[in-house]
Amino acid sequence: MANDSYQPIDRRPIAARGWPIWGRTAKWLVALSVSPNSISLAGMGCGVAAGIALAGTTYAAGWERFAWLAGALLIQLRLLANLLDGMVAIESQRASPVGELYNEVPDRVSDTATLIGAGYAIGGDITLGYLAACAAMFTAYVRATGKAVGAPQEYCGPMAKQQRMALMTVIALYCGAAPAVWQPTWGGPGRGLVTIALLIIVLGSVLTAVRRLVRIASNLRRSRS
Asked: For residue 179, what is the enclosing H or E element?
């Protein structure tokens, strides 16, 4: 069956990739002729929708809990798409030169939309939302630059994509389920748990970028010594 995605050998390590349920799901998608690139685009749609849902908590009077829970679900659907696009590409055993673009660009759009949306959410901070989006993109830039200069792709944390999205999912679930009195605010009008999460993402992403740079430099020195 034809497949229009390119998948690099040094893929991001994901433990769930070995779960039988996702293997069967990948086979089912291949049987339906679903392309990896369309899965990547669907994941991007979920990432953008997650950002809209998170931002919507500020404006959806009376529907805040629904918006929080929708945001958490959409974040996880985005990550599921990220998992399945590569598995479908491998299962179908075909690739194309533009697959790497579909593998990378939707991720950057998803991260940006979700984190900026979180900045506009109840308890968020708009400036930190934009900073978190920039910091997340920088970690990906460092990884891509390392690959471009001949080093293996570095997926280390402590604040890689999975950790960023796991943190935002937990916060969204908590804000959607916990009573308002259990959701403290501080440091200014309306700032709360989302602000803390975004600050952790910014600081953790900076540390992640530094760790990746150090590991890339070490790999390059070893390969040329």
From this structure: none
